[in-house]
Prior knowledge:
378 residues, 14% strand, 39% helix, alpha/beta, 7-stranded mixed β-sheet
Amino acid sequence: MTRLPDFRLETYFSRWEFTARHHLTASDAQTMAMSELLALADAEDREAWDILALGYTETFGDPGLREAIAGTYELAGPEDVICFGGAQEGLNLAMRVLLGPGDHAVVVTPNYQSAETLPLSLCEVTGVALDPARDWALDLDELTAALRPETRVVSVNFPNNPTGKVIDTADFVRLAELCDERGIHLFSDEVYRGLERDPGRALPRAADLSARALSLDVTSKSLGLPGLRIGWIVCRDRELRGRLERAKHYTTICNAAPSEVLARIAVKARERILARNRALIAENLPLFEAFFARYADLFEWRAPDGGCVAYPRYLGADGVEAFCAGLVEEAGVLLLPASVFRSELTPTPADRFRIGVGRRDPAPALESFGSWLEGRRR
């Protein structure tokens, strides 16, 4: 196993996330106060919160939370759920359980950095890039050609971070079938599911399509509750779930009891929270459309299919890295440049930046952004 590289996104955020005046690249939907979340609790969960004892919890996760999570899947039951301290822990341990020397993985790019650096630290990895020239399309023929006899994992993320792409359901179903035919585990990062602009385009859960597949989800993104630090993997392979539990014994062991009760409330109220967040994104998108239309000579904009991030193209002669650096240093507006999403596996566009569209009232940030652009033109 090789040494993991610096996590570029987190390094960039360490410098700017809590010092920039406008966090315009947030990857999570608008959060809520504790009082708002508790107001969504049913009587049973409110009592559970009020009398909660701060002892250890079950490694697999709170039974009530697992039952609530299972209710969001068609075929999975509570026994198919294992909870983690955020999605990152689940991703990390799944790769370590599934991959080793002599194995091979296929990873779709661009992506969240650890989706490729963790497999790369364990085995050989082939990247398959979404095509920006074809609206970030996934070429299933190219992915099929990348498979080998020793391929153990295919890792995907839809709605995609950072592009907001959602592929067609038929392609996703075919991908799951392809993995099953080859005895491969499909690892599906589904942390933005529920924020599709057209709810009819929501993809099936991978864990519902295949007993070998792993569906990763979390309270952080679509539900806008990253402070809970609760994620989960759903998989109908009992032996694999047992291996994930034993791996968790070496990391968090169990989750924080208050977070699990709060996560249970949030998952039960999921449809109300998602409806609120979809409405907020729908309200925000015309502001972003109008902003980028005013500066069409500098940007190519496309609204995301799903999730709450987009990946516009910067056309300025100074390049996207200098552009993002100047914007945050001089105007206090934080964006993430393409270098943060650079892949070691495939060529990736060097002229893009990630922008968040899921937070309440982006107008002040866009006003500062626009004033800075106007100042550069004078």
